[in-house]
Each structure stands twice: as structure tokens, then as C-alpha cells.
Amino acid sequence: MRSLSGDLLLQRLGEQPDDKLHKRLYNAIRTSILDGSLPPSSRLPASRDLAQELSLSRNTVLTVYEQLLAEGYVLARQGSGTFVAETVPDSCLSTSSVPVGSDGQQRGIELSDRGAALLHHASASPKQWGAFIPGVPDVNAFPHPLFSKIQARISRRPTPQRLTYSNQGGSPELQHALVDYLRVARSVRCSPEQILITEGIHQAIDLVTRMLCNPGDDAWIEEPGYWGIRNILRMNALNICPLAVDEAGLVPPEQPTNPPRLIFVTPSHQYPLGSVMSLARRQRLLALARNAGGWIVEDDYDSEFRFSGQPIPALQGLEADAPVIYIGTFSKTLYPALRLGYVVLPQPLAQALKTAHAELYRGGHLLIQTALAEFIQQGHYTAHIRRMRLLYARRRAFLTHLIEQHLGKQALSEFNNNAGLHLILNLPDETDDVAIAAAASARGVLVRPLSRYYMLPSRRRGLLMGFACVPEEQMAAAFTQLLACIEAPEATP
């Protein structure tokens, strides 16, 4: 059986001009090293093996290896083999990885308008762990050994149905487990047939938008609101209508001239400000969506984490057959890299969107979905959430104390409702919160500028500060670094 390196070199040998075999092999290996096909520190096949793979004499291969070794392209390690050198000779750095055209000029890359717009508005952080990254749970506190045991047992003798594509919206076991959990925890009304498992909220919103909207349709979003929703709506050519948020949630116009096709809300814990949508506001939105033939998309992203007061039921369960598409995720309760979310679809939409999901995204991950179903049904999921509530409540209280001690109570948002995985640290209107966040990042402290969550020019200044993944013993030092950035002259333009 040929190795990957052998396959590569056999192909490169055929591309060489008709010359002596050792020269052709030398050029094939050298070119592969220079263009990165054989990366630094990668092991070359043993001379005997490579000779057999390429149908060459071993002496030919040994001659080439010795020449490459003498010129510094490879290193020989006694008892280990021959490896590509970390650094190739300076005189051989003439090849370029920049794409060029037939005229030798560097080739320009032209993105689509919507692709360029996406990159212009991109806000995903390159760092996703540390003080005070918002929205990230303590992934170390997850019971990994327990979950791994469940996965290992299910994976020993998997059925063919769990190893093929899913065209019914995910694992039936997880769909049934979610029906029971959501009914008790969130007052959601649904059947297993209404549940679609997705790879997170972004995929769910993309699917809903593509299937229910035409280019140019109006979509209402919260102002400020989650930037990820805006980017998906832009890519799907919707007309984004940002509506202000107050203490009762999104504020719809009294008499909308153009009824929206979709209304995106986070009613249980508005993101990012933290207000809770009132019952009157919820009922008004439900009536508006029914009358307009539109749909409310309810993002219930971190509703499990309330640290005081009564749980707030989901908007979806407020009325029978509500025009609500309910979206949830395991990213905040378990860990983000799991890439599992779910959508509770209204009955009339369920089969159409499940079919579309299978066509667009080819659902899978059925083994891990089945393991998660068992994790939920055996009570481990709710037990983990209870433990995390206690842990996050302590960390939240510690961060709140730091902010009040150093900046005063007025530095905390007025929508502070003792829920979620982040706090808003208010800053004066003349402050450059983007510059502060950049300066903090340079010091290893991760916060998000509140102004980036707005679309319209009128925007508040502040910082989103996550506390879930930050042990108390690390908070004080990180907060000291952040204070230095806030108090620096560059913070005020």
C-alpha cells in the first residue's frame, strides 16, 4: 500500500521533464518541500519503502536523500528516519504561494458583494476563552468522563441508521428527550415531529430565513441585538429593520406600514442588554405576527441561567399554535464546540423545513445526539445546569462586587436582572469602547464593545463582560488590567 507521500511523489515524478530518474525524484521532493506539500518536520518514507512504492531502485532513492540532506532540505535522525527540515536553504526560497496569472502578475481575488459585506461586518472573536469573554460557559466543569462513557457504549455497536444521513431532523431519541425537557423547563408546547436538530443557532436562522423569506422582505430585529443574526440576514438579502429595546423588550411601531415577515426576539433575556419582555409586549407581538401572516423567531439562548426570581416561560408556549419558531442551543449549557442546537417548528412548517434542512445541510452527528438524549433522560443534564447555576451565581456576584467597588453601582446596566452569562459595564457616551476592548485584548483581557451591537448611529457605550468561564481567583487581576485600559487617555477620543 502506498503512503500519502508516495502518492504525491509518484504524481510529481510524472510532471518532471524527461530526465534521469534520480534528477526527477530530486526535483519532485524538492518542489514538494518548497510549496509546502511536504511540510516542515514531516517524515519521509523509508528509502526501501519509497523505492518499492515508486518502482525505483533503492540506490536511486538513497542518492537523492543524501543530496537533499547535504543541501539542508532534510534531516536524518538516527533510528527515527528522514524528516523535512524546519527551515530550507535561503537560496531556495524563490517559489511563491501567491496565486499568479499567466502573465506572471499577482492574481486579484474578487468576492461577491454580499461576501465582502459579510467580512466588513464580521465580529467573531479570534479568541474564545479567558477573562472576560462573554457567552462562554465553563467547559472544564462539564462532566466529560460521564458523557464519554455514554458515547463509548453507544459507539461500540452502532446501528446503520445512526451512521447515515439524517433526513428527519435528527435523532428520534433526542427529539423525544427535548419534548419532555422543554415542556417542564420552558413551558414549550410541541411534539417530537416538530423538533429539528441543527448545528447551532446560526444554521437554524439561515434555514428559517431562506425558507420563509424572499429577498427584500422586512425582518425586525432588536436594537441593539446579536450581530450574528444581522450577518445571516444580510447574506440572504433581507431588509433589516432595527427596533429599539426598552425595559419591556422590543418596541414595535403602533401602526406598522410594512408588516414584517420575521420578528427576531430574545424575550427571556434580551441580548445584549438583559431586559425581560413583558406579557403585554409578548401578546402584542403574537397578535401582530398572526395578523400579518409573519413569524416570530424566539431565541432562548441562555434562559436556563436565572439566579433569582421565578423562571420566565417561553413566548412559544403562551398561546396554542402560536406563530413562533423557537430556537435553543446547548452551547451555553454544555459547550460551544458540541455544535448542537434545536428548533421547535410550528406544525405547518415542520416537514417542509426538515426536508430543506436535509437538502441544504445533510444532517448527521446521530451518535452524539443519541448520547446526549440519554444524558438528558437520565437526569444528568438538569443536574449539570443546577451545579452551573450555583457556580455562575458566585462568579457573577464576585464580578458585580468588583465593578461596584471600583466604578460604582451606576456602572452596571439598569436592565441587570440577575440572569445570563454576562454583565454590561456602562461607559460614558464620549468613551471609545471599541478602543478599550482592543487595548484590553492586547493585555489578554477579552471584552466586547457594546456599541458594536447597534446598527443605527445612536448607540450606547459599554462593555460586555462574561463571568461564566472565569474563576474568582483570576477575576481581580484581569479586572485591574481592564481598569487601566478604561482610565487610559486613549479611551476618550
From TrEMBL:
Keyword presence, Transcription: yes
Pfam families reported for this sequence: Aminotran_1_2, GntR
Keywords: DNA-binding, Pyridoxal phosphate, Transcription, Transcription regulation
Superkingdom as given in the UniProt entry: Bacteria
CDD domains noted in UniProt: AAT_like, WHTH_GntR
One function term, GO molecular function aspect: DNA binding
Coiled-coil ranges per UniProt: none
Family, per entry: In the C-terminal section; belongs to the class-I pyridoxal-phosphate-dependent aminotransferase family.
Protein name: HTH-type transcriptional regulatory protein gabR
Gene: gabR_3
